[in-house]
Write a structure and sequence with these properties.
- There is one protein chain.
- By secondary structure, this protein is an alpha/beta fold.
- The protein has 2 domains: about 290 residues, HUPs (Rossmann fold, 3-Layer(aba) Sandwich); about 150 residues, Isoleucyl-tRNA Synthetase, Domain 1 (Orthogonal Bundle), CATH 1.10.730.
- It is built from 19 helices and 16 strands.
- The strands form 4 sheets. Strands 3-2-1-12-13-7 form a 6-stranded parallel sheet, sandwiched between helices. It has a 4-stranded antiparallel sheet with strand order 5-4-6-8, with helices on one face.
- The protein is elongated and about 90 Å long.
- The structure holds zinc ion (ZN).
- Zinc ion binds next to loops.
C-alpha cells in the first residue's frame, strides 16, 4: 500500500468532450479504481484547460465573454464524466482562483531560479495546439495535428532556459538510480523523446501578450503561456502552497495522455520542476491515436463520436469496457462502432451475460434459489479453480502494466473456461441423476461469478455490483484483489436473485 497520484491531461475547452477525451479519462479511472482496491491512497485528477489565445478567439468569435464560454464547456466535461462514472477526486479548472495563485507562486520561484530571460520570439504558431512549430515539423506548411496553416507570431516574451536541462533530463530518464528518475512509456515514445532531446533543446517562450490568462507576477503586461499554466495544474491541485498536503501526493505516479502532447509532459514539465527544485513525475505514459471507422475523427468529416452516443447504444459499463478493449493501450488503433457492437454481443451478451443468467437460473430452477453446499472436488473442478486463480493474477499483472486489453482478456478467459465447465458437467443432467454433484457444480459456477463480479469492478463498476447482488453477496473491495479472488469464499446457502434481468441484452 502506498499513494497513487494519477492524472489525465486537463482538456482544452475549445470543444465539448469527444471519445478521445473519454478514452484517456476512462483508462485513468480504471487505474484509479484498481489502485483504491489495492489499498493505495489514490488521488485522481482531471479538469479543464481554459486559458490561451485559441479560447480567447473562439469566445470572441461567438460574441461571448471568455469566462462564460469556459464555464459552459467545463460544465459539459463534468457532466460527461459523471455519466461515465469517472471517479476523479478533484476537477481542476485553470481559471480557479486557487490554481491562479499557485501559478503566480510557481512563476515567482522560476523567475528567482535565474532560468528566465526576456527575448523576442518570432515563429509559426498553431493556435489550436497553442505551440510554435519549426519548419521541419510542419507538413506541407501545415500543423501536423490540425492540418491548418500556422500563424506568424512576433512578440517580446519571457523565455525559459530549457536548453540548459538536456543532460539532466537524459540522465533522469535513462538512469533508474538518478534521484530525479522518471519513466517515459511506451518504449517507442521514450526513444523518440530521448532522440529529440539529444538533437538539441531550444529555450521556450513562456509568456504571451494576451489578456486571457494568468498575469506574470514580474511583468503583468504578459500572461503565462497556456501550456505552462496547464502543466502547473498537476501541482496546484494538490496544494502547491501547502507543503504538508503537497508532499502527500507529489511526485505524481502517473501522467496519462495521448502521444501528441508527450513532449510537454516528458521534457518541458520535468525541466520546469527541476528548475524550482521539485522532483519530476514518476511515470509519463502516452497512448496512441485512434481513427474512427478507419478515418481520422474530425468535425469536417462529421464523424466525431461523443461519449453520450456510445452510452445510449451500449450502456455506461459496456462503453467503458469496449473502448479499452479495441486495441492495445499505447498503440494506434481504430474504433469502429460495428466492431464494438459485435464485441458487445460476443463478449458481454453471449459470454459473460449468459454465464451470469444461466447460473442464477439453474440455482433457481434446481435448488429453489439457494446456492448449495459444495461436495468433494471431482473432474474439471480443479482446473476451474486454477483458472480463477490464474485470471486474478493475470488481471493484476496486466493492470499494473497498463495493459487494459490484457486485463480484459484475463476476465474473458475465465468466462470462457466456466462456460466450458458447464458444458462438461451438464448440470441439467445432474439435476436428475446426482444431486450432490449438482450442488458442487452450481456452487463452483456461483463462486466464479463472485470472482468475476470483483474483477470487472475497475472497468464496469455497476455490473460488478449487479453480478454480486445476483448471487446474494455484497461487492467487497475492502480487501486487495489477491485475497478477494482466493477460491471458496462464497458462503453457501445464500439466496440468488429470483428474477434477474439479463445483464447485457443483445443488440
Ligand atoms: Zn495544431
Amino acid at each position: 500500500m502506498g499513494k497513487f497520484f494519477i492524472t489525465t491531461p486537463i482538456y482544452y475547452v475549445n470543444d465539448v468532450p469527444h471519445i478521445g477525451h473519454a478514452y484517456t479519462t476512462i483508462a485513468a479511472d480504471v487505474l484509479a479504481r484498481f489502485h483504491r482496491w489495492l489499498g493505495d491512497d489514490v488521488f485522481f485528477l482531471t479538469g479543464t484547460d481554459e486559458h490561451g489565445v485559441n479560447i480567447y478567439q473562439v469566445a470572441s468569435a461567438q460574441g461571448v465573454d471568455p469566462r462564460d464560454w469556459v464555464d459552459r464547456i467545463a460544465a459539459e466535461f463534468k457532466r460527461a464524466w459523471a455519466e461515465l462514472l469517472i471517479s476523479n477526486d478533484y476537477f481542476i479548472r485553470t481559471t480557479d482562483a486557487r490554481h491562479e495563485a499557485g501559478v503566480r507562486a510557481f512563476m515567482e520561484r522560476l523567475y528567482a531560479s535565474g532560468d528566465i530571460y526576456k527575448g523576442r520570439y518570432e515563429g509559426k504558431y498553431c493556435v489550436n495546439c497553442e505551440r510554435f512549430y519549426s519548419e521541419d515539423e510542419l507538413v506541407d506548411g501545415l500543423c501536423p495535428i490540425h492540418l491548418r496553416p500556422p500563424v506568424w507570431y512576433a512578440e517580446d516574451n519571457y523565455f525559459f532556459r530549457l536548453s540548459k536541462y538536456a543532460d539532466r533530463l537524459i540522465a533522469a530518464i535513462e538512469d533508474p538510480e538518478d534521484p530525479n528518475h522518471y519513466e517515459v512509456e511506451p518504449p517507442a515514445r521514450r526513444n523518440e523523446v530521448l532522440g529529440k532531446i539529444r538533437a538539441g533543446l531550444l529555450d521556450i517562450s513562456i509568456s504571451r501578450a494576451i489578456p486571457w490568462g494568468v498575469p506574470l507576477p514580474f511583468d503583468p503586461d504578459q500572461t503565462v503561456y497556456v501550456w505552462v499554466d496547464a502543466l502547473l495544474n498537476y501541482i496546484t491541485a494538490i496544494g502547491f502552497h501547502d507543503p504538508a498536503a503537497f508532499d502527500r501526493y507529489w511526485p505524481a505516479d502517473l501522467h496519462l495522455m495521448a502521444k501528441d502532447i508527450i513532449w510537454f509532459h516528458a521534457v518541458i514539465w520535468p525541466a520546469l520542476l527541476l528548475a524550482v527544485g521539485l522532483r519530476p513525475p514518476r511515470r509519463v505514459f502516452a497512448h496512441g491515436f485512434f481513427t474512427v471507422n478507419g478515418q481520422k475523427m474530425s468535425k469536417t468529416l462529421g464523424n466525431v463520436i461523443r461519449p453520450g452516443d456510445l452510452v445510449r447504444r451500449f450502456g455506461v459499463d459496456a462503453t467503458r469496457w469496449l473502448l479499452l478493449s479495441q486495441f492495445p493501450f499505447g498503440q494506434d488503433g481504430d474504433i469502429s462502432e460495428g466492431l464494438m457492437a459485435q464485441r458487445y454481443n460476443a463478449e458481454l451478451a453471449n459470454d459473460l451475460g449468459n454465464l451470469v443468467n444461466r447460473t442464477v437460473a439453474m440455482v433457481n430452477r434446481y435448488c429453489e434459489g439457494v446456492i448449495p453446499e459444495p461436495g468433494p472436488e471431482e473432474g474439471p473442478d480443479g482446473e476451474l479453480k486454477a483458472a480463477a486463480v490464474e485470471a486474478g493474477q493475470a488481471f493484476q499483472a496486466a493492470l499494473a502494466a497498463l495493459d487494459f486489453s490484457g486485463a480484459i482478456a484475463a476476465i474473458n478467459g475465465l468466462v470462457a473456461r466456466t462456460n466450458r465447465y458447464i458444458e462438461e458437467t451438464a448440470p441439467w443432467n445432474l439435476s436428475r441423476t446426482d444431486r450432490r454433484r449438482l450442488g458442487t457444480v452450481l456452487y463452483n459456477q456461483a463462486e466464479v461469478l463472485r470472482v468475476l463480479g470483483h474483477l470487472v469492478t475497475p472497468f464496469m463498476p455497476e455490473t460488478a455490483r449487479t453480478i454480486c447482488r445476483y448471487i446474494g453477496v455484497e461487492l467487497d473491495l475492502s480487501r486487495p484483489p489477491a485475497e478477494t479472488v482466493r477460491w471458496g469464499q462464497l458462503p453457501p446457502r445464500v439466496r440468488v436473485e429470483a428474477a434477474p434481468k439479463p445483464l447485457f441484452p443483445r443488440i
